[in-house]
């Protein structure tokens, strides 16, 4: 009987085993692991898997979990359709740049 | 294997490359293939963290200057073999580029560009609006006036490309120090002598500046004044869909571009003339703006109405390193032996990088004159020899 799969990222079907393999291949930062395995890039945008991923990475690195910084949070907070976005007014360009 | 190198940097090297993006890694790889032994790549963040990893992954040969056409054409030849050469899947797909316009006034320049590209053996053709529907069936052609299409243009996954090159570099003995910042460069008797980093100093006779948007400030630290300015450009990705879109669609009217990745996502962006220009890294601001998301969504749903029901997953921003003529700056500078720059790609480094790295590595190791490098040298701006490329989009 094969070993059961434990899913780390349910949106993108990334297993704990795949995450560990990616680490072993040299993807030892959370930003690179995200882009290599796809963890956190699915429908929940990491809300369901980022802390678990960070915890697992801390274990792999042998460091305290607080040393692993989360990936950059990208808008929108929840996926929106292009029709919804297109119906909004275009905000003015920022004027506070030098 | 891409090791997270937290060791001190080596005390000596035959060449130091600053920046582990497309240009730094292709140059380091090609230098190693030509027999340069001790090469160190210094990257202040992670591999591909700068402009390369933030780009749309498009690779087109549809340009209006011969240098850009040649570099892109030769790079496409390299992309066609890249997965095999690197032993790494880079997800290169040749779905073509469809360049569209809504302005009658653009058509003569587009026809001239097709002629120039054809003379260079790039198989671009001019299309009437109705012919675009054969390539993108649901495109809104109501305002289109014409288009050009090259079936050999395509896309690749930018991170896979830099990971593949990083692994190939590693196999050839190149040391890649990530999370390592350059803190100073020492010049002695008109030669590059030493690179200082926050992990130690490296004595080296050669420094290759591949720092992208940071290349201007790095060059300034050795007294080289680059005319580059830096711009924020935003981009986004949608949820994954079944394959429905072969080419990259790009409008020279409003600057929108979008393609479908091999994961199925729509990847796209749009230029914004209201964006500011910067010249110092302290000014860079890559936060996302709602303005981009709304402008992109409006342009996308106008051009491709069926996308209205598709959800946008996330948006991000990256920096373009832009020169006055939108062509890269290559080569060295008189009076500073051992210094080279490969920068100023104006948003097109990913597509031109592989062949630029190959040509520059040959130039650095042999000193041989290269006509493309010569025509893209920094002194063209002093000579007033400026021939802008007209097809800068996004």
Describe this structure in words.
The complex is a heterodimer of chains A (98) and B (394). Chain A contains 4 helices and 3 strands, in the order ββαααβα. Chain A is mainly alpha-helical and 98 residues long. Chain A has a single domain, classed as BFD-like [2Fe-2S]-binding domain (Arc Repressor Mutant, subunit A). In chain A, helix 1 packs across helix 3. The longest helix of chain A is centred in the middle third of the chain and has 12 residues. Chain A is elongated, with a radius of gyration of 17 Å. Chain B has 394 residues and is of the alpha+beta class. Chain B has 11 helices and 20 strands. In chain B, the strands form 4 sheets. In chain B, strands 4, 5, 6, 13, 14, 15, 16, 17 and 18 form a 9-stranded mixed β-sheet that branches. The two termini of chain B are 34 Å apart. The mean pLDDT of chain B is 95. The chains are: A mainly alpha (98), B alpha+beta (394). At the A-B interface, helix 2, strand 3 and helix 4 of A face helix 8 and strand 18 of B. Strand 3 of chain A pairs antiparallel with strand 18 of chain B.
Instruction: Estimate the helix proportion of chain B, in percent.
Output: 25-40%
SSE arrangement of chain A, N to C: EEHHHEH
Mean pLDDT of chain B: 95
Distance between the termini of chain A: 64 Å
Low-pLDDT runs of 5+ residues of chain B are none
Radius of gyration of chain A using CA atoms only: 17 Å
How much helix, percentage-wise, in residues of chain A?
Answer: 25-40%
The helix-and-strand class of chain A reads mainly alpha
CATH top-level class of one domain in chain B? Alpha Beta
How much of the sequence of chain A is in beta strands?
5-15%
By DSSP, the count of extended strands of chain B is 20
Annotated CATH homologous superfamily of chain A = BFD-like [2Fe-2S]-binding domain
Q: What is the number of helical segments of chain A per DSSP (H or I, 4+ residues)?
A: 4
Largest interface: A-B, 34 and 43 residues
